[in-house]
Write a structure and sequence with these properties.
16 strands; four-stranded antiparallel sheet
Length: 738
């Protein structure tokens, strides 16, 4: 098969499966590195297959297929589902190290961690549920991703609350003393202990200046919000789908034979470009007009060599091939040849980039005006550095033959007007008349005049039609043929006459910036009575618009409501919510530094970051609330919670980051989509891990002090000391340096 678009889908799915496997291996490496016990490693390791199998069952129940959206969700889910298991294993292992037996350690750990596990799960599910209700094409992509993540989080929570404590009680043993471990583990533990010691001392100093630290964090949030609003936007990244399309447009009135020669020339030039596998040229089709029939247009489908083969050679990526084709094909002087990269989603238009439809809306059909306006927009857009390869296929001055029928003469000769038009259509074009059976096959029969009888305009007058009297009457006795100019193709968009204008954004500019610039040009160019519409991928991008900001807001609101119900407080959930914007600082910095636009996949990553940033904060705040309820002072509770939760936070965060890291370095089919979501999530999670663990204790201290002193709400005391009215002696903060 010379041209097969399904190869891209197959290759993309294979690449994602490979990434899924790599993510699982990297997550296990992190677990082994921190736990340093193969028994303990088995507990979170068994979580992955159980949860993934459950995720496939949920996909089947929801009617989802195995596609890029659902597979992306599974890749990210690997790093998420092990979080609960890691937290539980770390808690049980810590109690066993303190001298407790496995069963008692598991029970005590679950008493401490059941609340955080349930809170994290509810937060994950509440974050993604609003995204599943987005309308349109983007909503379908979000829905599959969001519901698969929510399903895996739910399954992971059930697994963590039931199977994991049992496994810990049965499998975990008292750890090997540090001096009996190998040199690598001893070195790692030495570095970690220094980091934890330094972290505890830093948190102690920051909590003692909690209000100042909170103000600094709020300033960082403002910077993150400002940076996010300044990011260029786009809908979906352009993908290397393994082929491009050449749209060939000759001057008006060019014959089919001349068009065929140019298409053959373009095909020969294309085959010489490195990375091209074959070509398939078709004459008489306009790729920019929904593949309509047009004598002076042609299309060439250009499949590339396989991604693996091109990946081994320099200069055979999509951008290089695109640049080389444009340079070589510009040497063709007889025609304009456009290189069209297919849209990111098959069927949404014929090419990536933007597609603008200027329209005549005042009821007239002045196609000359429409062409002048389209040409003016193209001319102005071509002068902009942010836009390139802007063109229109619309023509209103193509040479045509106009046939006027003298109705009086036709009636006198016993010929109807319909007979005249039918005769011209059959002889000059062709018409189906019957079918025959031959050699066991059915063949359709069409009639058409011989080529020598339809070469010149005068030949129309020599064609004959049968009159009512049975005589053959020459058409020349009742028609007049004259040369005129007009549009060879008449296109309507929403029932209005329209022209198609296509183009792409240049390197360094996003598709969102290109759309904004084209809107400005159209507003300054279109006369009264005309308007414009976006279509294809541009329409989908405009539809998305600012609806994602509503999704972000609703997700944060639901997280707040979930935590307010769990904490029985309207104030303390803010110490978790305030950690979310800090994660955006990393994403904004990475996208800005790498020049990546804020597209649909990065927005999916931002929604995920709401849950992940909340997860780290919940681990600290939940334990600090418990210590405060036992009677510990606010600042001491914040420091102790930060110190004890530092290790599980690092474990879960790095497990997730390394699990997603293969997306950042993705290659092959569908690599740009994987890179977009990978960069957004990894950079945001790094910022959350580095900043949230620093500022969340200060948030907790300020808000807890406000709740107790201003709102006069005392924490619920429990435990022996709380019942006696005393409190646990404060844990002295670790010194700043050892």
């Amino acid at each position: 098969m010379p041209f097969d678009t399904t190869l891209f889908v197959t290759a993309s799915i294979d690449e994602v499966y490979k990434t899924l496997f790599e993510a699982g291996i990297l997550v296990l490496i992190v677990i082994i590195l921190f736990l340093q016990d193969w028994r303990a490693t088995l507990v979170p390791a068994t979580t992955v297959p159980v949860t993934i199998i459950g995720a496939f069952a949920a996909m089947a129940a929801l009617g989802f297929t195995v596609n890029l959206s659902t597979l992306f969700a599974l890749i990210l889910a690997i790093g998420i589902v092990v979080d609960d298991a890691i937290v539980i294993v770390e808690g049980v292992a810590r109690h066993i190290e303190e001298g407790m037996d496995g069963q008692s350690a598991a029970e005590k750990a679950m008493d401490e961690l059941f609340g955080p596990v349930i809170g994290i799960t509810l937060v994950l599910m509440s974050v993604f549920l609003p995204a599943s209700f987005i309308p349109g094409l983007s909503g379908e992509m979000f829905k599959q991703f969001a519901l698969v993540i929510a399903a895996t989080a739910f399954i992971s929570a059930i697994n963590a609350a039931t199977l994991k404590p049992t496994q810990c009680a049965l499998w975990l043993r008292k750890p090997v003393p540090n001096d009996q471990k190998n040199a690598f583990y001893r070195g790692f533990n030495a570095v970690y202990e220094k980091c934890e010691h330094w972290y505890a001392g830093l948190i102690s100093r920051m909590v003692h200046h909690a209000m100042l630290m909170s103000l600094i964090a709020i300033a960082l949030m403002a910077v993150a919000g400002w940076g996010l609003s300044r990011l260029p936007t786009s809908f979906l990244p352009i993908e290397d789908q393994g082929y491009v399309v050449l749209a060939v447009q000759l001057p008006d009135g060019s014959s089919t034979e001349r068009t065929r020669r140019v298409v053959e020339e373009a095909s020969a030039i294309t085959l010489k470009v490195p990375g091209i596998a074959t070509v398939l040229g078709i004459t008489g089709i306009s790729a920019l007009d929904n593949n309509s029939t047009l004598a002076n247009a042609g299309v060439v489908y250009v499949p590339f060599k396989s991604w693996d083969e091109r990946g081994k050679q320099k200069g055979q990526d999509l951008l290089s091939i695109y640049t080389n084709l444009n340079r070589e094909l510009s040497k063709i002087e007889e025609a304009e040849v456009l290189v069209l990269v297919p849209p990111a989603i098959q069927g949404i238009g014929n090419a990536s980039g933007f597609t603008l439809q200027p329209q005549i809306r005042d009821g007239n059909f002045d196609y000359t005006l429409l062409q002048n306006v389209a040409d003016s927009i193209v001319s102005k857009a071509s002068d902009q550095s942010a836009l390139s390869h802007v063109s229109t296929s619309f023509r209103a001055t193509a040479p045509q033959l106009q046939v006027d029928v003298n109705r009086i003469k036709a009636e006198t000769l016993g010929v109807t007007v319909n007979q005249v038009f039918t005769t011209i259509s059959a002889y000059v074009g062709s018409t189906y008349v019957t079918q025959i059976n031959k050699f066991g096959n059915v063949f359709q029969v069409y009639v058409q005049a011989e080529s020598k009888s339809r070469l010149l305009p005068e030949d129309l007058q020599n064609l004959k039609v049968k009159s009512a009297g049975g005589t053959m009457v020459p058409l020349g006795t009742m028609i007049d043929v004259r040369m005129v100019s007009g549009a060879p193709l008449i296109s309507l968009y929403n029932l209005y006459p329209t022209a198609t204008i296509v183009g792409v954004n240049t390197a360094g500019f996003s598709s969102g910036q290109a759309l904004d610039l084209m809107e400005q040009i159209a507003a300054a160019t279109l006369p009264p009575g005309m308007g414009y519409e976006w279509t294809a991928m541009s329409y989908q991008e405009k539809q998305v618009g600012s609806q994602m900001y509503y999704v972000f807001g609703l997700a944060i609101l639901l997280v707040y409501m979930v935590l307010a119900g769990q904490y029985e407080s309207w104030i303390q959930p803010l110490s978790v919510i305030l950690a979310v914007p800090l994660a955006l600082l990393g994403t904004v910095g990475a996208l800005t530094g790498l020049g990546v636009a804020n597209n649909l996949y990065t927005q999916i990553g931002l929604v995920l970051l709401i849950a992940l940033a909340s997860k780290n904060a919940i681990l600290i705040v939940e334990y600090a609330r418990e210590k405060r309820a036992e009677g510990m002072e606010i600042m001491d509770a914040a420091v102790e919670a930060s110190r004890l939760r530092f290790r599980p936070i690092l474990m879960t965060s790095f497990a997730f980051i390394l699990g997603v890291l293969p997306l950042v370095f993705a290659t092959g089919a569908g690599a740009n989509s994987r890179k977009s979501i990978g960069i957004a999530v990894v950079s945001g999670m790094l910022a959350s891990t580095c900043l949230a663990v620093l500022f969340v204790p200060s948030f907790y201290a300020v808000l807890q002090r406000f709740e107790e002193k201003v709102l006069k709400k005392k924490p619920k005391m429990h435990g022996p000391e709380g019942a006696a009215g005393g409190h646990t002696p404060p844990v002295p903060p670790a010194p700043a340096s050892a």
